[in-house]
């Protein structure tokens, strides 16, 4: 029985979407601009067809290749992943204004009341690493949590894992999540960090996303309904609120690559493995670091080579992205982009322009699932 591995390179977009101008992103192109700035040596994914999807190679590809377009009105993680799994977002997300303060007073008051403090820190749009460096020492001194947002529909809370407490941070996020979800804020994210001062602060692997519930069954649910084993790697369990996931394996990207390798060895016939590699986005896209992004892409490509070689006859491994985050672009936010769709296990095939929901339909088609969703299979 066939298996399927759906692998998301978080933020690895390949050109502005048709509606990018309405997001302020016309001209953004994450992978092309990295290649133009730094150069990309990715022989494994280029061999499959990444170069054709990005427009940087005319070498005849050996794998499935094309470009996918999103219809959900967002450029964020839940929108992208939900739609890739067959469920476009049926509502408008709530976004906080780029002002200081950013949050309604009643939201800030709820956070402070839970913590027993006379206020919060931050209350603005910010880069996660920058705001921890700027406010981390005051947070440790006062106990006030650091609350910030971005151009995404998100409420993030940073706190010191030891002085504030990881359990306490997670309890705070659990308390705030239903309040913010009722406003159509997509995610509340716990952002723990460690260190003794601004020069040593660093975020830990214990991030946790408290996401809104997906409004209808996804590819993961379809697979479970048909009795298939389902695995999440990285943020997948958080993005889908644990729904449809039998087992989720977490860690930094190097650890996640080990999980993916192990599941290629271990996953039973008929299994679905859904993976997210987030550090392209979190460490390099938001920090506008094209050199670091390029190096991480090349690390990924080198590491995926031996894994591709282990795929069984009948396996499908698709590589795609959920949005863009052009590290050469202005600001620090995601960019509204189309994404590459590259596949191993089904031979050479140019699928051209497809939609995000077609990815879910194609994986379901490959697995022989009863449900296909609104998309059309490109297999």
Automatic annotation (TrEMBL):
Annotated binding of Mn(2+) 1, by residue: 10, 322-323
Cofactor comment text: Binds 2 manganese ions.
GO CC entries: cytosol
Biological processes annotated in GO: 2-deoxyribose 1-phosphate catabolic process; 5-phosphoribose 1-diphosphate biosynthetic process; metabolic compound salvage; nucleotide metabolic process
Chief localization: cytoplasm
Localisation per UniProt entry: Cytoplasm
Domain Metalloenzyme, chain residue ranges per copy: 3-370
HAMAP family referenced in this protein's UniProt entry, alphabetically: Phosphopentomut (MF_00740)
Similarity section: Belongs to the phosphopentomutase family.
Record-given protein name: Phosphopentomutase
